Give the backbone structure.
Amino acid sequence: MKPNIIAVINQKGGVGKTTTVINLAASLSILGQNNLVVDLDPQGNATTGLGKSNNNDDKNIYNLLIKKINLKDGLQKTNINNLDIFGSNVNLSGLEVETANDENRAFILKEILKNNSEIINQYDNIFIDCPPSLSLLTIMALVSANEILVPLQTEFFALEGITQLVKTIDRIKVNLNPTLSVRGILLTMFDKRNKLSTQVDKEARNYFKEKVYQSVIPRNVRLSEAPSHGQPCVTYDKACSGSKAYFKLAEEFKSQTSKIGSAAWIQKKKV
């Protein structure tokens, strides 16, 4: 059975994208699913957040994309059962320049995954952590994925900021990946004491209806602390509000029986 390949994307940094990747993947793994995290961000925060070095000169996604190593040799097991990672490092930032003459460069990752189906099909989900920009690496992720998960910070410009992302997704659907769909929108950094958070929550659900997960990720200091200890919050402190929210999200994620909708659907809502 083919895995769900989910690009976790937002062109804005600091919205909880990497935090969502590592904690959702870890939660699903704890619940018994097999998951792979592909760190496609040169910062390598998902890599270090799962206890691996982002200075590994051999086992990294850059070497895979330039065909220096194969997929099997680059995979690393984490300290969490059922959870593997393909790590990143800063060398990845040079890929766009190095592949400038390759007209098929947007399909490099997709082809690698396709040509390694025996390995890939062992996973239930593959989460691609995208860089916080609409770059070649992000396009690679969107071409490779069949679904998108968008973390949306509950702040003033959040809904306006998603407009550019939606336009990019729509272009990818038309030109490169017609099967791409939006699995869900996740509200992050929610502070119930803040009227603005509540307002953004209400507006997001008004625009996107059932596309917005019922699970909401709160502002929580443990979520910020955990990466410095090389582990996701759901293992660092299972009892904190952030961990409980991600376990709830994992259950909701598992219960989704069909694709939630297309980028075109969102665009009709005139964000």
About this structure: The chain has one domain: 4-268. The first helix runs from residue 17 to 30.
